[in-house]
Amino acid sequence: MEKPLEIFQAELRVKDINDHSPVFNEREIILKIPENSPTGTAFPLSNALDLDVGSNNIQNYTISPNFHFRVITHKRSDGRKYPELVLDKELDREEEPEISLTLTALDGGSPPRYGTAQVRIEVVDINDNAPQFQQLLYKVHIPENSPVGSLVVTVSASDVDSGLYGKISYTFFQPSEDISKTLEVNPKTGEIRLRKQVDFETVLSYEVDVKATDGGGLSGKCTLLLQVVDVNDNPPEVTVSALTSPIPENSPEIVVAVFSVSDPDSGDNGKTTCSIQDDLPFLLKPSVKNFYTLVTERTLDREERAEYNITITVTDMGTPRLKTEHNITVLVSDVNDNAPAFTQTSYTLWVRENNSPALHIGSVSAIDTDAGANAQVTYSLLPTPDPLVPLASLVSINPDNGHLFALTSLDYEALRAFEFRVGATDRGSPALSSQALVRVLVADANDNAPFVLYPLQNASAPCTELVPRAAEPGYLVTKVVAVDGDAGQNAWLSYQLLKVRTARLLSERDAPKQRLVVLVKDNGEPPLSASVTLHVLLVDAEAAAAAPADPLTVYLVVALASVSSLFLFSVLVFVAVRLCRRGGAASAGRCPVAEGHFPGHLVDVSGTGTLSQSYQYELCLTRETGTNEFKVLKPILPNLSSKSIGREVEENPSFQVPFS
């Protein structure tokens, strides 16, 4: 079949053959006929039954040859034929009190089949009047919902005889089994009532003969035709022939179901209308003879709705109207029509430098609204267009859950940030995917100690600063410059002493060489620090002015010596010799100075670095064997940011001045 869901109507007819003979229910029929019965009187006889139909059923009745009777075949409204015995010649009991005849029923087969019954006629004397019905045909209509015991009709017959011959009793004449179960007659009153409830959908009408018999055995008959009136007592019925579930989404006009509607009632009671809910994307299309097809009106989207509960409502046109509801459930199967969607278009992750390898640094997440394998998402790192970023050695991703891991230890000072794209692919066919941007920011850690740029620290040739002995208070001795490779708070340098100034006039009693240790400390957690040592050489004013230009002065001396007069020659020689001595002392790191004990005075130490705080320390020059240093006695201002430094200053008489 090219279209298996279409409906084709066929009718099968079974052709009857003449394989049954007529059969009488009674082998012997006894009739009591008064001798004074007039000619032409008809006497009903029991009919025979033949299971065949049509022309193979009973077609004719015959009686054996005799002088008094003949048989007539009559046809009922339902097609059945029955015999009647007609008196052609008056009877005489004294001549022939009893007559025996053979009744034959013939069917229309070829060859015809037949059945026989014996008719025994007793000629009755005296009672010469048979009961007579008021109507030969009683036609009655009764609703099918009439209760058991309902009165159908009352038949009535009369007999002009008197006494026992005038007393009448009523019976059904040759009732069928169905009529015997459905109707009953009162033998005295002639009332006919229901023994069981009739059903229009089972039997449309009933026909039965009612016989009235008097005390002398004479009888008359009438016919009852009972027609059942239909009432709307049957709701419509729905029979589903085919159902398709689930149906794929994105497919138009799919036949979901094929069903038929029936109502056993008649007329308007059997006419039906069929409908479904208005808010569903389905249509009902009528097919042949009460068949319907349920189809999709448009393409369905499983992500919008995955299941439909459809109620097929069938209503008849009777009064009152009866309806039937039939529910079917239609599932929508998934098609891979939705790509995974990330919860964010871009992700920003923070990682602290010096992390341990394989550290979980964050996660990305994508959601696929499909179902089954179409919704299973796999994550991957996409190639980066920047060849300078070695993405494969920096991060990895768990393909199942989107967790990101740092493969190596990151260094803020080398790589402060990098970005890459992450892909999410489902397992549908064909597979769909999407992308998201991930930016990784490296957070700084305090892993770099401060570095002193100036003065440079050289173990072989320490830096020496020249300070004139005649320097005024506030004289700029030197400037300390330090940097920190970290960022933010980790690069804030505390206690950074940028300038060192004298606090009083220097005298000849001060040691010619002083050593000052400056400590530089950042603001990280924990803090890191570095120290620098300053050598201060006390010199005369002339030497202090000439020392910075020592190489230039030598060249000038040589140039001036060639053109100067003899008068200046002796002066220049004197100056050159003096400069050479000073230069040698400076390069050796020591200079001859006068020895002696100097009283304590004040030296101002100012810091103008990242922490702009000013501190004053009371310093004194002491004479010691080998080295002379600034000795810190106590701070004048008590707001030092480090209490530990203050305690060390007071406890250690040889503390080296901290610098930040």
From TrEMBL:
- Write out the transmembrane intervals: 554-577
- PROSITE patterns, alphabetically? CADHERIN_1 (PS00232), CADHERIN_2 (PS50268)
Q: Which keywords, in A-to-Z order, does the entry hold?
A: Calcium, Cell adhesion, Cell membrane, Glycoprotein, Membrane, Repeat, Signal, Transmembrane, Transmembrane helix
Q: What are the Cadherin domain coordinates in residue numbering?
A: 25-133, 134-238, 239-342, 343-452
> What GO terms in the biological process aspect are recorded for it?
homophilic cell adhesion via plasma membrane adhesion molecules
Q: Which GO terms describe its molecular function?
A: calcium ion binding
Localization, UniProt? Cell membrane
> Pfam families, per this entry?
Cadherin, Cadherin_C_2
The principal location of this protein is membrane
| GO cellular component terms, A-Z | plasma membrane
Topology relative to the lipid bilayer, per the entry, is:
Single-pass type I membrane protein
Please list which residues make up the signal peptide: none
PANTHER family from the UniProt entry: CADHERIN-87A, PROTOCADHERIN BETA-16
Q: What is this protein called?
A: Protocadherin beta 16
Quick one: which gene encodes this? PCDHB16
